[in-house]
Amino acid sequence: MKKNEKIIKQLIKLLGQEKVYSSLEDCLCYSYDGTFRTGVPSVVVRPSSTQEVASVMKLASQENIPVVPRGAGTGLSGGAVPVEGSVVIDLTSMNRIIKVDPANMLAVVEPGVVTAHLHKTVEEMGLFYPPDPSSANVSTIGGNIAECAGGPRGLKYGVTRDYVLGLEVVLVSGEVINCGGETIKNVSGYDLCRLFVGSEGTLGIVTRALLRLIPKPEARRTIRADFKTIEEAAETITAILSAGVIPAALEIMDDVTIRCVENYLRVGLPLDVEAILLIEVDGPALSLPEQVKTIAALCQQYGAARVRVAETKEEETELWRARKSVSPAVVQVKPTKISEDATVPRKNVPALIKAIKEIARRYNLDIVIFGHAGDGNLHPNILVDKSNPEEMERAERAIAEIFQAALSLGGTLSGEHGIGLLKAPFLEVEYGQSGVALMRRIKEALDPQGILNPGKIFGGSRN
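and the corresponding structure tokens:
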């Protein structure tokens, strides 16, 4: 009997036939994520409990089989792409919100809970879970934890790791551990929660999370400002934050992005400007008019051609629609979108934008630039056709230069997408040999066989 057939039979015995998928058609459905990379697993399982996840990990450890944990597969660094011969553990069946505790302002959830569903559930109770990746309507909390997802609200509220109080994690051996807890303060021993958040499924599999909630903001207002030059927009960002106003979101779209979105939506976006800023403020209703007045005045002072303030919920939705439509809009240009998220100190945003535009010109590539300018997190998207090897080769060289530009400006390879497969070759450039060696030692201590999500973060077939 072939090893794969033997493993499949054992998995069926552990989980039941209905939770094991081994046909080529089923496996192909799990062969990709939000990137252009692919890899076909040998089998997919959909456990519905921590105990079932643990039983799969025990078997994988005994048989030395690679395991790839997966949520909704929306990641943008290749973190959920399987390797040959692997078992994909699809965690989307573990999708219960176990409890919401208003008194302690926390939620206990399974990893398959869709992020937007958690948002809606807690907001109906007057609470707020701030992390808001653009994929929130699809992505899951487990995936958000694995990648330490952020989103537009990261400027004011931080990213996923800032809201994780505790985790239940299945280790490679099948052991189940709990770290953190329901208390706001917890400094007992090493901070294992922080270790697992952002580890991209390479150290353990999260099967339950205790998440910190905060009171839901009473009100919010949205402003759009159009700028003739990128430099004016960047100066305005610094001016707003220096004035003591911390927006919930401060987004930027460059001229190429604006044209793509307008061609896609036909909503009347201005084509005579180099940048649009989309700014959202939230908090007590009485404080917002003054914040809006300050922001609008600063936009005009620093050269905005137009400033529009949403007066109704419908106008607010209309203003955000353009930003949320960037991804489907840009793939109208070329079929393959390589989404990066180089991040720099916010004062260096203009320099990074300038560098990216020069790189695009030099390599004759279509690169759109948008993202969370308020926290320095830009998303240069390289638009290519992956069936064109020469264009892909130019794109790879351009990506390397974009990362080098970000690092030279005091930045980092990733603000919220993770390292995965796509950025693994550049990790040592940021952390140096000693830094990467330390990370490898942590990985080897928790996963000595190298079977948990192999190839991610460090590259290679086994870490």
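(Above: one complete record from the training split.) The chain has a mean pLDDT of 95.
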